[in-house]
Write a structure and sequence with these properties.
Layout (H helix, E strand, L loop, with lengths): L18 E7 L3 H9 L11 E9 L5 E10 L2 E10 L6 E9 L2 E12 L5 E11 L5 H24 L1
Antiparallel strand pairs: 1-7, 2-3, 3-4, 4-5, 5-6, 6-7
Helix pairs in contact: 1-2
């Protein structure tokens, strides 16, 4: 009998592994939503996004599948993400579809109207890579990406 091997990759993403942070933006929620929901324009304000092209849209014209060029520190990849608008306008989330290097990705933006012309945005993100990376290093990069993205979003909307 010949030899055979089975390779199985299982990625477990625990909710406690999700990195997140929030920022208060001095702008109405609708202005924040306008920027966040225009995913194809992310490269104009987000340094971590080098390109964004909408592959599919829903009946309301919202991006449901997007190919994104990512440059987040040591992670440089082309990722296809599926967007979920079921909780819009207060939340938009995305999940992994395909990539060159990443093996999983989940994230969301939650937009909270503070009722005083300010908006709190919470960004959650977790990724899994095809190469072994200690969880502490992965989470540090996720937090760095989150903090930078939120600061750039704030600068864009408040400009």
């Amino acid at each position: 009998m010949g030899e055979f091997s089975i390779f199985l990759r299982v990625t477990f993403v625990l909710m406690s592994d999700i990195s997140k942070n929030s920022i208060e933006i001095d702008a109405p929620a609708d202005a924040v939503r306008e920027t966040l929901f225009a995913i194809e324009a992310y490269p104009t304000w987000s340094k971590a996004t080098t390109s964004a092209s909408v592959v599919e849209k829903d009946s309301q014209g919202r991006a449901t599948k997007v190919k994104i060029g990512v440059n987040a520190g040591v992670v440089k990849d082309n990722v296809v993400l599926d967007y979920d608008w079921s909780k819009a306008p207060d939340k938009v989330s995305f999940t992994f579809d395909d990539a060159d290097l990443l093996t999983d990705m989940f994230g969301s933006f939650t937009i909270k109207d503070n009722g005083d012309e300010t908006t709190t945005v919470t960004y959650e993100l977790t990724v899994a890579l095809s190469m072994p990376v200690p969880a502490m290093m992965r989470q540090k990069q996720e937090r760095t990406t989150i903090d930078l993205t939120l600061a750039q979003l704030k600068a864009k909307v408040e400009a």
